Fold each of these.
Amino acid sequence: MDSSSPREWINALWVLFGLYWLVSALNRKKTKRRETWGQRFIYTLPLVAAAELLVRPEARYGWLGARFVPANSAVEWTGVLLTAAGVAVAFWARWHLGANWSGVVTLKEGHELIRTGPYRSIRHPIYTGILLALLGTVVTTGEVRGLLAVAVAWLSFYWKARREESFLSQEFGEKFAAHAKQTGMFLPKFANG
């Protein structure tokens, strides 16, 4: 890989992310309860739209193709570092979640409320990591359409996180309520109140 090509590094980071996700998905507990297809559609469709905005050349139409940052190597490498940091956060969170993980909203047999690693301060650190990685990718490409894609992805993850929290609240009751009070959804809580 040519070290002077930030976009190649971005692509490699996303391939690494995808491979890790595929391999780690092999270690999952059996599902006890799953959301319906219709509930899943609400957060899946915006993710598809965000991906389309990021990868389709046709999405560069008009103001969506305008740059919001200068096209220079310092900006592009900053994007690579943000993407790498986001992928690292997502990996760290996925590792702590272990066999409780699922790509859709579920409760697993023997489901545990994870409060280790990044889950000590953030309830949905995988989404935090993915959003940071997306933001880094967008900084590297530098186009307005990418900012819109990140906003749409955030909305999707917000909806999905709310569904997950509903499941966790029903399963763990006060234990989850106490955890939610001490942690932020996507960012740590820095102040009590």
Amino acid sequence: MNRPRTLAGLLLALITLVVFAAPSSAAPSTPPPAVTVAFDHGEVRAAVGERFTLRARISDISAAPVGPSIAHLNVASLTSDVYVDPEDWSSDRSRPVAAMAAGDGTWLDWEIQAVTAGRFDVYVVVLPTGPDRAGSGGPGPAPLVASAPVHVTVTPRRTLTAGGSLPTAITVPLLLGAGALATRRRARRASNLAQTGGPKT
């Protein structure tokens, strides 16, 4: 008898119909970013203790205005044995960004101090904060936007070693003493000449 085979075929057809007739429940796609952030240069070299300024431009690249946001600076070490506390590098890392019209932009400056020798990446992340946090592509939370990093190379501060400072400590007093002695001899010689009525011929 073919009844079991017929029932199995009907069941398979019913399952196929239900699957293809069900509405799709795909997750909403993340909207494209409405802003970009970029530094004005990509590399910095400094010595420990030196200060430098990084400047970044935040631009609205969408066809609609964007709400306010926060630009947050971060520092990451590229050397495994070097610890980084970003607060030591810049005490004012978070900057408010006002709402912008389509196509507008704004510049932000960060003053940074090189704290530790090593290789580092400095970058900025922009986080939307307004009530309408949707991106330019439709409803949903706007994605975070990160800049390309600025590569920072920090060299140790140059200091005199014990071997380099000792000759300096000895040479400078010797030169000063020699100069004073030469001046005294010239003065004594001039005094003697004045007393004797000038040089003898």
Amino acid sequence: MDVMWAPWRMEYIGSPKPTGCIFCEKPTAGDDPANHIVWRGNHAFVLLNAYPYNNGHLMVAPYKHIANLEDLAPDVTAEMMRLCQDAIRALKRDFNPDGVNMGINLGSAAGAGVKDHLHIHVVPRWNGDTNFMSVITDTRVIPQSLDESYRILHAAFTALRD
């Protein structure tokens, strides 16, 4: 069994939690680049994770504040899956991963950091991407800034629509 260790996420886990919902606040803030919203659909949007497991770690979330997968309307569910497909296409186009993890953590017991607003993680993976820095120093090397990842992935999503 492969284990994906993420000790650098302790910064997120140990930090004070915001009082609002990031998945409700970011899309209404009016500044997609600053909020790293890569793409918008009619019912859902794609954004970069501020505490990524890997470079290019994306999340797909509905605009509607909803916690349970079974409560999503069929058209929202379908669009979220299409956006996940586009996320994988964009990552393959410009990040060349060896694989991709997709996951939904439903509830805090399942590992959800934001338990009341459903979202899907799309994480590019490379062979050997758990390097010695993570193991020895509890430090994760993310070779690209979120702003640079945003620029690349926004262009890739735009190209998918052309």
